[in-house]
Design goal:
Layout lengths: L2 E10 H8 L2 H15 L12 H5 L2 E12 L2 H5 L4 H23 L6 E4 L35 H9 L14 E12 L1
Antiparallel strand pairs: 1-2, 2-4, 3-4
Length: 183
């Protein structure tokens, strides 16, 4: 890994909601992903109205961690299993990066996870049990209906990229945030 850059941008929640939130559309994608990869407590369906979350805060600090790969890593062609291992390593890095978001939380601010929660090896939602780490689990932008790919492209100027054909993308971006200025 060459470098991790932290990108931040503060926006009004109302503007973000109007331009980048479509819960009905995005929640269907989240549920389809869970059907393939396993269920998770920080993804829908929820027992609360996500609009209540968005309407509780005035500001959103988008926090993106951009991981640029070295030329050597980009030139390497990985076997399927090897690529899966490399990508899982970066998924685990999210937990460490989340500490920066947790540090910003207060009574008037709620952190947003960097994608699907991976605090546990296997989410207890898969076996109909309560979350084992509700004090650390946070909801990601996409679970609350945020169109993350579109927001990252429009607001930071980067397209979300994915590994394919045994090759790492030029970069990976993990996006989380902080809802703050509670109403």
């Amino acid at each position: 890994m060459s470098e991790i850059k932290k990108l931040t941008l503060d926006v009004d929640v109302e503007d973000f909601y109007n331009n980048y939130v479509d819960f009905e559309k995005v929640s269907k994608l989240c549920i389809e992903e869970q059907e393939m990869l396993g269920y998770n407590w920080n993804y829908p369906p929820f027992d609360f109205d996500v609009d209540d979350v968005w309407n509780s805060y005035a500001k959103l600090k988008l926090i993106a961690f951009k991981i640029d790969f070295s030329q050597e890593e980009l030139e390497h062609t990985f076997e399927d299993r090897e690529l899966e291992y490399v990508l899982k390593r970066f998924e685990r890095l999210k937990v460490k990066l989340m500490n920066e978001i947790y540090a910003l939380e207060s009574e008037d601010a709620m952190g947003l996870f960097l994608g699907k929660c991976n605090l546990c090896m296997r989410c207890t939602r898969e076996v109909n049990m309560p979350c084992k780490m509700p004090f650390k689990m946070r909801y990601p932008l996409e679970a609350l209906g945020g169109e993350v790919d579109k927001a990252v492209e429009d607001l930071f100027g980067y397209k979300i990229q994915y590994a394919k054909d045994g090759k790492l993308p030029e970069y990976l971006i993990f996006v989380g945030g902080l809802l703050y200025d509670k109403k």
